[in-house]
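ok so for the tutorial part 2 we go from a plain amino acid sequence to predicted structure tokens. step 1 is just haveing the sequence, like this:
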Amino acid sequence: MKKLAVGLAVATFAWLAGATGTAPAAGPPKAGVIFTADFETGDLAGLHPSGNSPAVTDTPARAGKHAMKTYLHREQSRCRYRTEVVPREQNTRVGEEYWYGFSILLPEDYKPDPVWEIVAQWHGRPDFELGENWRNPIMAIWTANGKWVVGNRWDPKPNTFEGGKRRYGGSKRWDLGPQEPGKWVDWVFHVKWSFEDDGLLEVWKDGKKVIERKGPNTFNDKKGPYLKLGIYKGWKDERGRAKSVVESRTLYHDEIRIGRAPCQYEGVAPGGKSPVRP
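step 2 — the prediction. this is what the tokens look like for a chain of 278 residues:
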């Protein structure tokens, strides 16, 4: 099926476990989709590199003929700890609902490593005029000693650095089981960004809902969070690099989509598949 291409910190998380729930009703397949990157143009159109720039490859691909290849070397890369992209025009707003979909492939030789690595993250935009500075990601998927982990932080205070020290309002962590090297893993996130009790977070892994949580899930910022994809690893300092048992990392992303209402699950899900019904 031909796909349409539409242009459009360092810390380990300390989060606790969550729950599961039911799947949403399907809507028009592409309604509400505001960003797509499928790499079928052979370049990173609509994506802004952060750190080292990923490349586009013709093998492997989740769908079509191309995918994004991310590479990081702890000594040889220009930036030793970050190879990521940021989808452009992410004008998200706190209090509104968004859908995010993408697929990640860890190659067959992907070895577990004690040094954390984030493969997808949502970052907040600090209100610098209030005295804030850059903070840890609001939400992220990372690999931890051979497991998939999702974590979330939030804070209702207008200034997370109130009193001169960074303090979050809360955090949560979900262990989503072992990594699956050699297999494309499809992810869908449905979020109502909020720092209050009306927030919502739903996550599907390969079509199965693995997280459902109501309550706060973001910082009290004037602008909403933005998505980043690639590798962000704890190799920024010599201590982190020395603890690692691997010298380099390679992984792949494909089928990146972002949507807002009236978008539903199928609008951003890799392959356009429906969720697995419980």
